[in-house]
Every structure is written in structure tokens, then in C-alpha cells.
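Dear H.,

Thanks for agreeing to be a second pair of eyes. The structure we're designing against is below in C-alpha cell form, covering all 165 positions.
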């Protein structure tokens, strides 16, 4: 009987005496400290590589070498998708595999987007952290893009301009 009581009481006492255990990866924390060091004050948006919808649209219309990287879920993508030529659709849950990272070009501007910009910000930050310096985030995501362009134009299929020979 005493042995059974000890088996229950001793672990409880050990937890109470030791307190909660918490640890973290100091090297990773330091690398994030360096990544976020410039994210201060009014320059925070630039430091986070946020691209406002108007800048995104103007760059696309000017035919700059943009790649849109849509990180929404397959269900969201089924409703509407990016119409920009060369766009990549890689759900955030699948983004950080070797095969999918290899699909992201390093020689063009990559604009990560999602519905509101939250997942895109997480993805863009992580991509820059592992060396993709050419990555930006569409500020406000599809919601902001739709508010800027209007729903009909924002969701219209891409129509290439005719080539005059």
C-alpha cells in the first residue's frame, strides 16, 4: 500500500519542486534577432518586404519579372487563383520541402500572397531567413488586392496582349 502511494506522490512532488521546464534553440533565436533587427518604426513595412497592392499591380502591368507565390490551401485556390503568368501555387503546409523550394526562382522578384497576408508574411519571412532575398509579401493579401482593383478585375483570367508582327 505504501509503495503504491509513493508511486503516485513522488512524481507529483518532483514536478512541484522542479517547476516547469522550458528551453529554446539559442542559435535560431539569435538568427531571428538579426533578421528582425531592422524592423522598427515607420520602416518596418519595408524591412518586412511588404509590397502594397498598387505597387504589385503596377509592376505586373509594366511586365516586370514577377512571380506570384500563392500559399493558400487547395480549397481556397479552388475558388479563385492568381492570373499572373508563371505563378506558383504551393500551399504553406507544403512550401518548405526540398522539391518545392527548388521551384522558387532566385533571379526574379517573388511576391508571396494568401487571403489576408498573414500566412504570406510568415512564409515570406521564413523564405528570406533561409536565403531567398528576392521575396516580398503582398500587403493585405487577396482581400487588399480585390479592394484596390475591384473584385471583377482582381479575379479576371489573365489575357496576354496580342503581339504585333
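And this is the sequence the design step returned. I haven't edited it by hand at all.
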Amino acid at each position: 500500500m505504501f509503495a503504491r502511494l509513493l508511486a503516485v506522490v513522488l512524481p507529483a512532488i518532483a514536478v512541484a519542486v522542479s517547476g516547469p521546464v522550458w528551453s529554446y534553440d539559442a542559435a535560431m533565436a539569435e538568427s531571428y534577432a538579426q533578421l528582425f533587427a531592422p524592423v522598427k518604426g515607420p520602416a518596418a513595412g519595408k524591412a518586412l518586404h511588404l509590397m502594397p497592392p498598387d505597387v504589385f499591380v503596377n509592376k505586373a502591368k509594366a511586365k516586370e519579372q514577377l512571380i506570384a507565390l500563392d500559399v493558400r490551401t487547395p480549397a481556397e485556390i479552388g475558388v479563385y487563383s492568381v492570373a499572373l503568368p508563371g505563378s506558383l501555387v504551393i500551399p504553406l503546409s507544403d512550401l518548405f520541402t526540398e522539391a518545392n523550394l527548388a521551384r522558387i526562382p532566385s533571379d526574379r522578384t517573388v511576391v508571396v500572397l494568401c487571403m489576408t497576408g498573414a500566412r504570406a508574411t510568415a512564409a515570406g519571412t521564413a523564405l528570406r531567413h533561409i536565403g531567398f532575398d528576392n521575396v516580398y509579401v503582398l500587403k493585405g493579401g487577396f482581400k487588399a488586392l480585390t479592394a484596390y482593383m475591384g473584385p471583377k478585375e482582381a479575379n479576371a483570367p489573365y489575357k496576354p496582349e496580342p503581339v504585333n508582327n
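Two observations from my side: The first strand starts at residue 50 and ends at 51. Confidence is low (pLDDT under 50) at residues 160-165.

Warmly,
E.
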